[in-house]
Design goal:
- The complex is a heterodimer of chains A (145) and B (181).
- Chain A has 145 residues and is mainly α.
- Chain A is 61% helix and 0% strand.
- Chain A is built from 6 helices and no strands.
- Chain A has helices at 2-5, 10-27, 32-46, 58-89, 102-112, 135-143.
- The longest helix of chain A has 32 residues, at 58-89.
- The radius of gyration of chain A is 40 Å and the shape is elongated.
- Mean pLDDT of chain A is 74; it is low at 115-121.
- Chain B folds into 2 domains: 1-99, Rna Polymerase Sigma Factor, Chain: A; 106-181, Winged helix-like DNA-binding domain superfamily/Winged helix DNA-binding domain (Arc Repressor Mutant, subunit A).
- The longest helix of chain B has 21 residues, at 23-43.
- In chain B, α4 packs across α5 (75-94), α5 crosses α9 (151-158) and α7 crosses α10.
- With 181 residues, chain B is mainly alpha-helical.
- Classes of the chains: A mainly alpha (145), B mainly alpha (181).
Chain lengths: 145, 181
Amino acid sequence: MDPMNAELPERLSAAVRALDARAAERSARVSPDRVASRVLERLRREGAGEPRIWWMHPTALRAAAAVVLLVAAGWTVSVVRQHSIQTAVRLPVSIPVDSLNAQQLEAVLQAAGEVRAANFEPVASSNESLDNLSEQQLQQVLASL
Amino acid sequence: MGLPALAAEADGALIARYLAGDEQAAGELVRRHTAALARYMAAQGAPAEELEDLTQEAFFKAFRALASFRGGASFRTWLLAIGGNVLRDGRRRWRRRQVVELSPEIRDPSGDPAEHLDAGSTLQRLEEGIGKLARLQREVFMLRAQQGLEYSEISTALGISEGAARVHYHHAVKRLMAWIQ
């Protein structure tokens, strides 16, 4: 133990040496033959193998881990899909249009982002202003968002 | 195979023999490592009257778990780690009735009595301090300072990283130094 104790402060190193010397003295009273015969006798009596519950077997644990991973992956995919669908659907479609003026409507449309043309029939050409839309057309525009 | 022939075999060969059903191989492993295991446990404060039982318990647990021994650390280091677990289980039971015995060098009446008194007191403080360390700090410290093991082997035996072993050792030294001052 001396080589390792070289890295210890002297006071602690000396104390560890004294502790080890005492431990050696105590352990000298332990008989290896007696311990060996008692251990062997106990192994014969209680069995040499560690009792193992079936689900603690490595194969069972690996299979369980694979199932957990598959379920987690499936759940993640379904959540991501659901989230993207909901993001597309959840848009403000119930804005009280009557109370908005043209500028406010434009602001709403700008904030909502690009309108997807696929979902409705175009009601106005690109060079037309929102001022020219009827209330129904505006409703259509908003409902399509 | 007779006992002298078994005594010449390496631990790995004896383990293989035991796993193949040779009981005598287990006996040889016990005889070979009893002193080191008992010394390791005694240094951690295992009471003298229970030392043989604790040693036997550690060997029994080791042989029952032998199939899981992967050989990353030596059999002895692995056994010492199991001994540490056995000590942990028994520690609460015997901590309170721990009696400090003086080693012969401390009992030696020659020399300066004050120095001996100081050494005895330091030893007692060290033993108390070791008992107060967190389990991993204590085991890393003892495996390093008493058994002289490298960090790599300690980390394998205790199932921690080498860096963690170094940190535990550093903290243990710091705490023990403060404790014995």
